[in-house]
Amino acid sequence: MQESIAKCATLSPTEARRFIEHGWVMVQRAFSKQIADDVVASAWRELEERGIMKDAPETWKQEPYVRTGCPPNVNIMASRGDKEAAAQMLEIRTRYGLPAESPPLHEIAPRALGAQLDCVGGPDRVEEPEQIKLPDSLAVNLCSDDCNLGEEGWRSTRAPGWHKDGWQYRHFLDSPQQGLLLGYLYSDILPGSGGTQMCVDSVGVVARLLAQHPEGIHPDSVQSYIKPHMIMECSEFEELTGEAGDLAIIHPYMVHRVAGNPSGRARFAQFPSIKLSQPMQFQRDDPGEYSLSELVVLKELGQLQCYDFATEEDYMTYLREDITPPPSRTEEEQLVASVELYEEQQRMALTEPEWAQQMWTKRERPDRIAKLSKNSITVSKFGS
Ligand SMILES: O=C(O)CCC(=O)C(=O)O
Ligand SMILES: [Fe+2]
Question: How far is the CA of 145 from the centre of ligand 2 (A)?
């Protein structure tokens, strides 16, 4: 661990240690307030065009939580070379006065880039780090309403919206698609003012879930499963607070939710991920080569050698596939996903707790299954 910490070029040893211990760290002044102000100004221009006026908070209620710029699913599809999505992205950016491409981090916010690279084990662990851009499409929490949570409040396992990011790939313990969850703060966020809420002991819960499923889990299952799963096992909660220009670096397994924002101040932030050039590794010959992010997983799993890891051969059956996010799916893709999900959840229900069995075994087998069965996953090594 000391060796991995000593390799950090941007994070202080205290920050690196904090990330390993808590699964997240707030890096202060990772980018300039000027950059934050400029991005927020262009977000307000877009919002005002949509009738949400900066100086008239009563207009905020029409969309209490709103995304500006390019929607995340369009961004994902454009980054995969989908021409239609790329054209849509350019059209949206042009319409709202954003540059055709956002500026690369290494030019305008090297500290923000350096801190991320430290957590994933250095520039070699990321494809084209110089291509990583400042995220300038924002998640704006104007006045989300969270007042119906009852006595337990947001720390309650019953609060809606808890999720693990990653609706666009099959989730494995070592998935490279989402190396980190990043929280760019574009406005100051005081406590109770719409700062993202995290369940910090969820990292271990998710690590154990993924370790028990070396065949991977479909992203739609992750989203339906994670919430009840964490209900059973988590108890530590924190919210993101800080100043414009701060960057939260969060382990990709962290379960989190959108907070209510009764403060009267609009909250501007964005939560992109960073893609690894290779899957994470949990059995490195040289322990000094573990990334901070891998160390978090190892810490949570403890006796790692007991788990059955998928081999490259297994990944031929259980593809490390990119999956189209739900809003961009064609009807055909939606059907394939529903069949895949049905089979996966029937299988998982045999080994998961009783509540999961109840949730899943009652589902109907999707229609047109015969026509689509050629596309469904086959279960060999990891089947029941
Ligand atoms: O806006 C927030 O506070 C959280 C957003 C989020 O969880 C996401 O974009 O995946
Ligand atoms: Fe999220």
Answer: 17
